Amino acid sequence: MTKLTETKAEPHEDRGVYAHPFFQNLIKRSQRYLSLGYPVHFTGPTGIGKTTLALHIAKSRKRPVVLISGNKSLSNAELIGAFKGYNRKKVNDNYVRTVRKIEENVTEGWVSGRLYEAVKNGYTVVYDEFTRSQPEVNNLFLSVLEEKILPLYGTKRKDSHIRVHPDFSIIFTSNPAEYVGVYQTQDALLDRMISLPLKSLDQEAEVGIVSERTNIDQDKAKAIVGFVHRVKDLCKNRDSSLSLRASIMIADVAERYQLPIDGDDKEFQELCLDITYFTLDLCTDDQEEDLQNKIIEACKKV
Ligand SMILES: Nc1ncnc2c1ncn2[C@@H]1O[C@H](COP(=O)(O)OP(=O)(O)OP(=O)(O)O)[C@@H](O)[C@H]1O
């Protein structure tokens, strides 16, 4: 079970970035809804920071955090639990020398699922990319959210369900429905959560995150974030999936290899091209050379 009492995201998580008014307000509202028992759902494009924000808020609840990652093969057994393997107990009673008694007892071993543990003990769940799981599996959450019970379907357990602990809370994240590998979500499930769309990050907040993650100074981070935003505007056919991750990668490589963050530097230009060209090629009609020239032009402004 992925139980994050000390989440791995800790080094990246930064109170400075989340102190930005853009986040402060969002965090305050989310905490309010969660404390009243309402599930919160962050939805938005890839790389905008939904998971990191969800983990940050989850940790602020001061309960153990369980991370569940949505995927096509996630099963009820993983969420609820299942009987797996056998426990065998053998008692060899030879107390009276002439009498030997052997008693053997075989029972199936129960392994609790991640949702079961969280519901039972009142943990905070971050269900990341939940729309990548099959809708049938997500039906479990309808009962958890509405009836406040976790049904123990098909588990061979005597009890038909367990009650949801009053401290249990859950944060969902998802990418929009048009993303590849994403299932349509049941309206009934969406209706039971408070969905907060994260469409775009405030540029200043992005600069803060890039600077925090890579230890480059704010001016350099600003120049890199500015470059990524300029090249995103080259997209004509559809929204570019270039995200905060592109800015972080450029800053990280430049910082670690001491490349000058300077648009006239050849190596920095190559870095800008490598990180952005392929993604931009998917959303423009430009020929290869034209697109490369446009990226270099945008990079030269750094
Ligand atoms: N507040 C933050 N502080 C530091 N790094 C952050 C912060 N927010 C996001 N990041 C970094 O930005 C990148 C994208 O963040 P994250 O994975 O949370 O995005 P996401 O919206 O969940 O993306 P996806 O939809 O692809 O899962 C990650 O490398 C993450 O570590």
TrEMBL record:
<keyword id="KW-0304">Gas vesicle</keyword>
<keyword id="KW-0963">Cytoplasm</keyword>
<dbReference type="InterPro" id="IPR027417">
    <property type="entry name" value="P-loop_NTPase"/>
</dbReference>
<dbReference type="InterPro" id="IPR011704">
    <property type="entry name" value="ATPase_dyneun-rel_AAA"/>
</dbReference>
<comment type="similarity">
    <text>Belongs to the CbbQ/NirQ/NorQ/GpvN family.</text>
</comment>
<dbReference type="InterPro" id="IPR013462">
    <property type="entry name" value="Gas-vesicle_GvpN"/>
</dbReference>
<dbReference type="GO" id="GO:0005737">
    <property type="term" value="C:cytoplasm"/>
</dbReference>
<dbReference type="GO" id="GO:0005524">
    <property type="term" value="F:ATP binding"/>
</dbReference>
<keyword id="KW-0547">Nucleotide-binding</keyword>
<protein>
    <submittedName>
        <fullName>Gas vesicle protein GvpN</fullName>
    </submittedName>
</protein>
<dbReference type="Pfam" id="PF07728">
    <property type="entry name" value="AAA_5"/>
</dbReference>
<keyword id="KW-0378">Hydrolase</keyword>
<dbReference type="InterPro" id="IPR050764">
    <property type="entry name" value="CbbQ/NirQ/NorQ/GpvN"/>
</dbReference>
<keyword id="KW-0067">ATP-binding</keyword>
<dbReference type="InterPro" id="IPR003593">
    <property type="entry name" value="AAA+_ATPase"/>
</dbReference>
<feature type="domain" description="AAA+ ATPase">
    <location>
        <begin position="36"/>
        <end position="204"/>
    </location>
</feature>
<dbReference type="GO" id="GO:0016887">
    <property type="term" value="F:ATP hydrolysis activity"/>
</dbReference>
<dbReference type="GO" id="GO:0031412">
    <property type="term" value="P:gas vesicle organization"/>
</dbReference>
<dbReference type="GO" id="GO:0031411">
    <property type="term" value="C:gas vesicle"/>
</dbReference>
